[in-house]
Amino acid sequence: MPAPIHVKTLLSCPHCWMEFPTEQILYIAESQDLIGDPKLGDQYSHRFLPLRFDEARCCLR
């Protein structure tokens, strides 16, 4: 069984160093099947909040 994950309450953006609460951070899809973001447009990868994970702790959409 994997060890528990300890999540920080604030994380910093590696590009602008702005801090965000962890509940506001979204994952970015890597699959070409998931192109099209509601806010950014059809040419961008879909951003989403993962709610399910597999045994390797990879998020499932």
Question: What do you see in this structure?
Answer:
The protein has 61 residues and is mostly beta strands. It has one domain. The protein contains no helices and eight strands. It has strands at residues 10-12, 19-21, 27-28, 35-37, 41-45, 47-48, 52-53, 59-60. The protein has a two-stranded antiparallel ribbon. It has a two-stranded antiparallel ribbon with strand order 3-6. A two-stranded antiparallel ribbon has the order 4-5. Strand 7 and strand 8 form a beta hairpin. The chain is flat and about 35 Å long.
Give the structure's gist in a few sentences.
This protein is an all-beta fold.
**What is the count of helical runs?**
0
How many domains, as an integer?
Answer: 1
What is the percent of helical residues?
under 10%
- What is the spatial order of strands in the main beta sheet? 1-2
Largest sheet: 2 strands, antiparallel
Strand fraction band? 35-45%
Please state the CA-atom Rg, rounded to the nearest Å. 14 Å
Low-confidence segments, given as residue ranges, are: none
* Straight-line distance between termini: 22 Å
- The geometry reads as flat
What is the count of β-strands? 8
Category by helix and strand content: mainly beta
List the keywords.
8 strands, single chain, two-stranded antiparallel ribbon, about 35% strand, about 60 residues, mainly beta, flat
List strands and helices in order, with pairings.
Blueprint: E1 10-12, E2 19-21, E3 27-28, E4 35-37, E5 41-45, E6 47-48, E7 52-53, E8 59-60
